[in-house]
Amino acid sequence: MGESKKYPQYVAAFTACLGSLAMGTVLGWTANISEDMKHFTYNGINIDDDSVGWIGSFATLGAAASCLPIAFFCNIVGRKRAMICLTAPFMVGWLLVVFAKWLWMMYLGRFLTGFAGGAFCVAAPIYISESTEKTIRGALASYFELMLTVGILVAYIFSMFLEMKVYTITMAMFPILFVIAFAFQPESPIFYLRQNDVENAKKSLIRLRGNHYDVDKELEILKLDMVEEKQKKVPFCESIKKKAAKKATFITLIIMIFQQTSGINAVVFYTTAIFESTGVHIDSKVSTLIFGVLQPIATFLSTFVVDRLGRRILLIASNLGVGISVAVLAVFFTLQNADVFDAETLHKVGFVPLVSLCLYCVTYSFGMGPVSWVLAAELFPPEINSIGSALAGSTSWVCAFIVTKFYFNLQSSIGGDACLGSVCTGAVEGWTGNISEDMKKLSFNGITITEDHLGLIGSLSSLGSVFACIPSAYLSDWVGRKTAILLLIVPLLLGWLLIILAQEFWMLGLGRLLCGITDGAFYALLPMYVTEISEKDIRGGLTAYFDLFLTVGILVSFTVANFLDIYQYTIVVGCLPILFGLIFCFQPESPIFLAMKGKEKEASQSLHRLRKRSYNVTDEVEGIKLIVNQNHNHSLLTTMRKKYTRRVMLICFPLTILQPMSGITVITYYTASIFASTKVDLDEKLCTVIFGMVTVFSAFLTTLVIDKLGRRTMLITSLLGSSLAIGILALFFTLQYRQLVDESVIAALHFLPIVSVSLFTLTFSLGYGTVPWLLISELFPPEIKSLAAGCGATFNLTSVFLVSRYYFDLKSAMGIDITFYLSSIINLITGVFVYYYVPETSGKSFAELQALFRAE
Predict the structure, then answer these.
(1) Are residues 449 and 396 in the same domain?
(2) Residues 720-751: pLDDT tens digits?
(3) CATH number of 507's domain
């Protein structure tokens, strides 16, 4: 018997993903017409910014609502039938939008189309992961994100040439195209086996592998896997209490939250509005089209590498790129809102927003966009694959709702500078980012490193961080903030010494644990120290320095790793704590701590060092004493327990909640509006075309590297790239609207908006768009995958809804640059989380993944 055929599997995956293409048209529908709807109405309905926000976000809210129901529906009627049934709400929703006479009809229509599209986000990855071989599973699963970006691009293009009514009718035809193509594909063989229908399962495998392939061996393996899973199956309440289940849920939900909060939804949904906020003269629709082109291209390219490079590598690289791009965009908006730019300077630097968004698009599309969904589809065992994917999808769309709905509120209520520090969060724990694959291939100090070891290397540092927070708080109240921070250099140096001199794996693991202890303590103590020594009017900005230097640390580690071997690189990184200690030892103790100890004189002296000598610190000392006395009777243990509980809750859901906040929702929905906001003297339609081309390029790269680099790598790469792109766009808006430079500078920077938007789309599609969902399916153990995946998906979809709904509100409230600074910050934070907690799943079967995870 010959080898299996790949062509039938590619066809099945492609036709299944036509449903995600239909969802892409839903997401991209508002991008180029949001401004036209406000200016010319829609079917006679008056549309304002608030209405546009609801129109955009209701689709994500509907998507969030569908994830859990579709999971159960898939288990009842099958993956294929469930997906075909979704055509009904798709068509009803589009009909309501086409013939809407009142806003509620548009809202309901958008909700129904989002409901159907969100269900595809769950069903399609499940179907693909269960129908394809593991050697091409990552690439084919990334087709979901690829077709989603293609759908967005299609919407961008048609909106430029058709009247709104005709354009809307055209978009309504794509669900029909899906059902016609997909009706001829076989059902998932795993679903048949769950129904004890071995005969049809074999027929399905033959159709998917070819007539000359002996499917009996694969069929027996699948049957044995199911028997083993049934034997290990325990009541849900018991399974959810297991450490492995909790860890899997934590990882998956965090990835989905951070994916949506990277800024992708704000950029996708409100691209036009973002570019208009830059004050640069650029055709917003052209810029939107450019963004739309970039995203599918990047996603497509990622399909070629996702199985070769590995999920982990793509995720890490993507996270870094996203963070940088969003940071640049945020800086631009900060400078712009600070009136640094005059008209001439703004004209010269007008290219910055476009470049940053393009960079963000590219980096996001390479990892964060596709790899997240790939992981979600791979990790879940068959019996709970549907529910697990549903949880991931719901979390993602909940986050997307929040991002799209409240984008404009945040933009109007806060400034770009306040968010710039958060953009840089993620510099901590960058050591393994560029060397994990080298450690596996070349060993480390003669120590053989396996996937299990890499999982432990990443998790031990985070484990140390968890255990360090509460003890470090007690230590800081005992010996002081400054002294405690300096003492923490000792375990950090010991940890690096153990890693450098490691001859056995336990030394490497212990070193990572000690480094993690210091990292966790720094997370607790450094922000606390900064807030206690700074004045209230600059406290927020100074506290943001913590996140800023986190990203600098990541950048340094990644950069040095490219030029030195692993051993030399580790020595260089291990010397950084010494540099920190030499600089920090000359700083004063926290005045609040001194006041807590009754040392009022020393507290005054500390304040004098921190303020000007001529500053009268008496009133501030009295205020500190009042604060100390009010909290004197509060138990430190009780306080730390409450904080720990809040912290645990906050870090359990970031990936799916934050993904829409990455910028993808806003850019997809309102791309033209973003480019129009730049006011750059560029052809907006041309910019939009360029943006769309970059999107396609990033999607293509994802198919190439997702299984080579790994899910984890692609997701991190996507997050960082998206952050960088959004940062560039934010910087452009800052320079322009805050008048930090003259018009000549803005004119010279006219290319930045389109480049940044395109880069954002590219980076998002390469990891963040796909990997979180793929991780949901790969990582969760059978016992709790259903609930974990359902919750994750619900949060994500709600975030999408909120982002699309409130983009314009946020823009009006706090400025467009601030909005993108926030997305950039979120993307960097997500990249750090992926580095610590996400294991590599590329090339592993479901049984192997479960064994690996349980071993950790």
Answers:
(1) no
(2) 888 888 888 888 888 877 777 777 777 777 77
(3) 1.20.1250.20
